[in-house]
Design goal:
homodimer; alpha/beta; 14 helices; about 45% helix; about 15% strand; globular
């Protein structure tokens, strides 16, 4: 369990970006929707087919320059089990193209239930002696509100494989402080308390680049906290949402990186997915628009960071 | 948005129990597995068919005496999208039989992503002018670590319908105190802070029995906290896990109820599902065993509570 494969992808592409795959029908070109509805019907199956087709176009346009994708489970569940099948197929396609897949499910539970989530999203399940891969992601986002009981089942199941988790620490949204910024017993904040747990949970899963397999989600919208956390969590890799659409810029995310330009991967979802709509591209050029935006973002980040590694 | 339909189910059956549907293959009679593997193959599809068949047997045995079921998403996701289809079909079957369905997903995210989860599990989704029900639960468990941004999208989408949410407050596991019991700024604990938010979030969703549509998850394993929270959260309905297999008994859960015997629903998952294994029933009698255990549990609870309502 570690983030070595993610880090190697970042080094290879010289790009610390993850592309969020959060497809809603309104982001998807009409021509794709029309074709899928014609083939599968104007229903959940047709919608799910459109999601998958859209994602494949994005992956084809990105896989050589962006090391990772982050499908957000909610957008697939919204289209029923048919949508969840599209999540499965999206993960499989991205992995075929060599991308690192972070399944953004923010899952949380305890004991055997958390083991079931770990099996679902990172592991293999046994069916009467035969083994199957339910979803096959490389990493999973998780919520640590339930404490160690919610995290250790992931460590156990993942240590056998090259998998990782990202624990929510300081999220990018406006109201994240309501709970996360409260000061607890010793003076630390709630998010800082969770952050310190990440270092401890990660101890037995250290990879060869100095980062463990237990990462942390820290929002781009809170650069001071990014800076504070980078300093006290030397072995915790960061997943940083909130760049772009949520208001975080390149300068805001710089504190997430270590001096080598490693230690963080920056997510952009709508910025890349919806570039065709935001920049006035024709809909058939949605993948081209996504690639252009991904290159712009990479160049902006690397312009500040310099050579990574 | 409220828990009126759940409360009416409790009054009708005189039973404040919810049956957890957390099916693993190892809980399912071999004869069901064999028949499903013969029909669908020894694969995820066959496993998912066995889950559904098992659940249907349980629902048939329980629907007239137990008002609600709580399928735990993890156990379905563990068998891939095929398992998630079994979740959909389980929810549909339970609703057909008049049961209230609490989808236990502990979902959490912000803004449009949380809206997508709300749509997925409690609402309807539009596909080019036609509307579909992705999963169709009556209530969803959610994790409030992200603050109000993670909860208000649920309120908005649910107010139009008779739906509810249960927010994790004090969970039943051993390590729940690591974060939840820390004292914050004013001296309150983290769980107490979340609990007070529940009362506020629920204000606009009051039902006719004096409870809002925003409930709280409070574990049976912490009776003191149950008692404390019942007192300060007069309009918050409780979902209480941890009875039975996790060690909570009837006396432990009593503080969760108001003087009328309302205000809480007590979950039993393995206790009911696995009664046939625990009590040495023949496997073909698994549903009968589940019914016997559900009656035993009901009688134990109502023996302490008296007439409900």
């Amino acid at each position: 369990m570690s983030f070595d494969r993610l880090i190697e992808g970042i080094l290879r592409t010289q790009n610390p970006t993850v592309a969020g795959l959060d497809p809603k029908l309104s982001y998807i070109p009409k021509s794709i929707q029309t074709a899928c509805f014609a083939q599968y019907g104007k229903n959940l199956e047709g919608a799910a087919a459109a999601l998958l087709e859209f994602n494949k176009g994005l992956i084809d346009a990105l896989y050589d320059i962006v090391p990772a994708v982050k499908p957000q489970c909610a957008y697939y569940e919204m289209y029923g089990w048919q949508g969840v099948k599209a999540l499965h197929d999206t993960i499989a396609y991205a992995k075929e193209k060599g991308m690192f897949v972070i399944t953004d499910g923010k899952r949380n539970d305890i004991g055997t239930t958390m083991e079931a989530y770990a099996t679902a999203h990172l592991g293999e399940v046994e069916v009467d002696g035969a083994w199957f891969t339910p979803f096959g992601g490389d990493a999973l986002t998780v919520n640590g509100y339930l404490g160690s009981d919610g995290i250790t089942p992931l460590l156990t199941i993942c240590e056998k494989q090259e998998k990782g988790i990202f624990v929510l620490v300081k999220t990018s949204n406006m109201s994240s402080g309501e709970l996360q910024n409260l000061n607890v017993n010793g003076g630390d904040t709630v998010y800082f308390t969770v952050a310190k747990h990440c270092e401890t949970w990660g101890e037995t899963t250290m990879g060869k680049y100095g980062y463990s397999g237990v990462g942390a989600v820290v929002g781009a919208t809170y650069p001071e906290q990014l800076s504070e956390l980078r300093e006290v969590l030397p072995t915790t890799f960061f997943l940083v949402p909130g760049y772009g659409a949520q208001g975080g810029g390149a300068d805001d995310v710089l504190p997430a990186f270590d001096p080598k330009g490693l230690g963080a991967v920056i997510n952009s979802s709508r910025g890349i997915m919806c570039a065709w709509q935001k920049k006035g591209f024709a809909e058939q050029d949605y993948a081209k628009a996504a690639r252009e935006e991904a290159i712009r973002m990479r160049d902006e980040l690397v312009g500040k960071l310099g050579t990574i590694g």
